[in-house]
Design a protein that fits this description.
- By secondary structure, the chain is an alpha/beta fold.
- The protein has a domain of 99 residues.
- It starts with a helix and ends in an 18-residue tail after the last strand.
- 10% of the residues lie in helices and 18% in strands.
- Strands 4-5-6-7-9-11-12-13-14-15-16-17-18-19-20-21 form a 16-stranded parallel sheet. It has a three-stranded antiparallel sheet with strand order 1-2-3, with no helix packed on it. Strands 8-10 form a two-stranded parallel ribbon.
- The chain contains six helices and 21 strands.
Amino acid sequence: MISPTECRVGLLAQLSLLGLLASCVGRPAGFDEGDEDDLGTTTEDSDSAGDSTEGSSTDEVGTTTSETGSGTETETGVVDGCNPVQFADPELEVRVRLRLGLPDDVPIDAEAMAGLDRLILDGDVHSLEGLECALALEELHLGGSAIDNLAPIAGLPALRELFLSVSGTPDIQPLATLPALEKLEVLLFDGFDVAILAESKAPLSRLIFTSSVLENPQELGALVSLEELRLSWTLLPDLSFIGELEQLRTLWTYNAGIEDIAPVAQVTGLETLELYGSPFGDIGPLAGHPALIELGCGSSGVDDISAVATIPTLESLNVSATAVADLGPLTGHPALGSLGVGETPVVDLSPLATVPTLWRLVAYAMPNLGPLPEGLSVVEVHLSDSGLTDISPMATWAPFLHWDLMNNQIEDLGPLLAAEWMFDPDPDLCHELYLDGNPLAPENEAVVAELCQGGVSTFASEPALSCAVGSCGLMPP
């Protein structure tokens, strides 16, 4: 089983680079300046000034107040201490001014803070004090910040999206007080207590953990509004809670250490199931699933895909880097469009000729691959590093958009000229053939010239075997 340390180490280098990039670019595309709407105000008649309700108090002038986050919010929608806003960290004030477009000589008051809807903070910010006044804040990005206190954002009424990547392990109790939270993304957090999220009444629908260590992970079952759960380099070996998540549509994991997927069968509305890099070996429990559209089992212990034959809704299947050898269960599948079988012991691709919906085939690094079948409907093919010598069956395949045949043993391209569609391609589409790394004979120069004339772009290390047609340029294979 993968240790928590191993789960976190794998992405540290990449994440450090991401942090550096974030500090360089500031705010990503999409974080546009929002409209500035004034906070609404309400007044109370003096006759009602003496009335009080639970959780509120009345000041001398008859304004009812209530506790909100780390401040006190009045019925005028203003938090005490927000006229002007007091920032403990000058860098936070700089970021807020930049977002609001306010010069240094203009005080930031509650009315100005009403225009703060999105904010991105990085490692230069050390305190969030002042954000308790951001009652209109909807999106907050804390990336690589040296923040140890989340109290200022407690109870923010409009906060819908929060990205949390901070040094250390601050108290996350304030997260349970965010009534509008819909999306939470957590990065590099050692000891995130899911039980705290379970206390929340927020409509949390998207939850993402990357390189983190979870405490009380079974409490995920209490987050019944979840529609999407993603875990990358974050261990979650036991999925016994998953049946409680009736709204779940996407479960996406990468190296999560999942050992048994049987509980997943209880989530009958699940559409996307990605389980890359986990040790489980049996997908039998998924047989007959009524809604599954995407299934990813790459780098797992799976060796039998018989269950797929009973999932008629499945459109995408990835079993790359597994022991799957038999594609027979895919025969006549009514919906399968994309298939990944790279780095498997598969020899025979002929069952795929009976799948008319198949448009994409990823079958790289398959040294045992036998002769190619005729009549495939695929238009995007990745068949690199598979020892191919004879490509004549490909002339019977559907008109292609992208064929990656790199690093094989192909000597002759002539058979492709027999394709009925070769000289009547769609002029609005690119037809790309990647050939680098093949021992192509010099005679293929004439073939390439004909292919080029017919609208097919070829890419190889030898200039005489390369030809880009129209607007079709060299794209990554």
